[in-house]
Amino acid sequence: MRIVGIVFLSCAMAGLARTSVLIATHKSIEVHRPIPEPSALVKVSLPSALRLHGAGALFVDARDAADYLDGHIKGAINVPVGPADRIRLGMSGVSIDRTIVVYCANANCGKAEVIAHALSQLGFINVSVYSAGWDKWPKK
């Protein structure tokens, strides 16, 4: 199947903005599940993130590789913002129902939200964002 184009559609329904993705191929159009809006992302506090980390959640560092190599949350994998196929590759082997916490540098970074949206669109169902990021994570 050859993809001809990708179209993002937004509409307002009952006061809620919704965005969906249509992938048009030469034979059909596939409608993928709605992309979560920023307000729909589950954001976790530091105490919650620490509990999730202790329980074995997968932490995903959305920062660039150089920042990740300078220091990251123990056990985190690096999946920087980029094309969907690179994000998908970075998550290869991870079950779609795995508990995932995405973070970046700090609350002003924004990369964690981008990756969390992408993961949700790729079908991961238990994604949250630790928005305080690496800057607020306790270093030992």
Please explain how this structure is put together.
With 140 residues, this protein is of the alpha/beta class. The protein folds into two domains: 3-35, no CATH class; 38-136, Rhodanese-like domain (Oxidized Rhodanese, domain 1). The chain is 24% helix and 31% strand. The protein has a five-stranded parallel beta sheet with strand order 4-8-7-5-6, with helices on both faces. Strands 1-2-3 form a three-stranded antiparallel beta sheet, covered by helices on one side. Strand 1 (3-13) and strand 2 form a beta hairpin. It starts with a strand and ends in an 11-residue tail after the last strand. The model is unreliable at 1-33 (pLDDT under 50).
Offer a concise description of the structure:
The chain is an alpha/beta fold and 140 residues long. The chain contains 4 helices and 8 strands; from the N terminus they run ββββαβαβαβαβ. The longest helix is centred in the last third of the chain and has 11 residues, at 111-121.
Coarse shape: globular
Task: Just give the CATH class of the largest domain.
Answer: Alpha Beta
Task: Kindly state the number of beta strands.
Answer: 8
CATH architecture of the largest domain: 3-Layer(aba) Sandwich
